[in-house]
Write a structure and sequence with these properties.
123 residues; alpha/beta; RbsD-like fold; 6-stranded mixed sheet; 24% helix; globular
Length: 123
């Protein structure tokens, strides 16, 4: 058993496969995800886990060099993202999901609580 950090094996594996500039997303429970994109579904019930809980667990695990957020995203979601942010329409964000390596589905019910992250390098 792992001693600390992420415990979900699918999530650990997906993060380990990321390369520089690969994209991945953290999404609310209502975002339509393209069929060909891997979904790591963490949602249990509405509101659990929250976007913030998932993002806080991920921050120590991944290097991020950029993010994409939809115009309608709440300010509190934007404030959680500790990197340069590109703001696009919600339709453009949904289109960019097709290029993501995976999407982490949370139980978040806040509208537009979706962020696409661009992987950086640790060196």
């Amino acid at each position: 058993m792992k001693k600390s950090g992420l415990l979900n094996p699918d999530l650990c594996y997906a993060i380990a496969r990321l390369g520089h500039t690969d994209t991945w997303a953290v999404a609310d429970c209502g975002l339509p995800i393209p069929e060909h994109v891997e979904i790591i579904d963490l949602a249990l019930v509405f509101g659990i886990p929250t976007f913030e809980q998932v993002l806080n667990a991920l921050k120590p695990e991944v290097v991020v060099e950029g993010a994409v957020i939809a115009e309608g995203a709440p300010e509190r979601i934007r404030e959680m993202v500790d990197t340069d942010v590109e703001v696009v329409t919600h339709e453009e964000l949904k289109a960019q999901l097709a290029e993501c390596a995976f999407v982490i589905r949370t139980g978040e019910t806040t509208a537009y609580a979706n962020v696409i992250f661009k992987s950086g390098v640790a060196f």
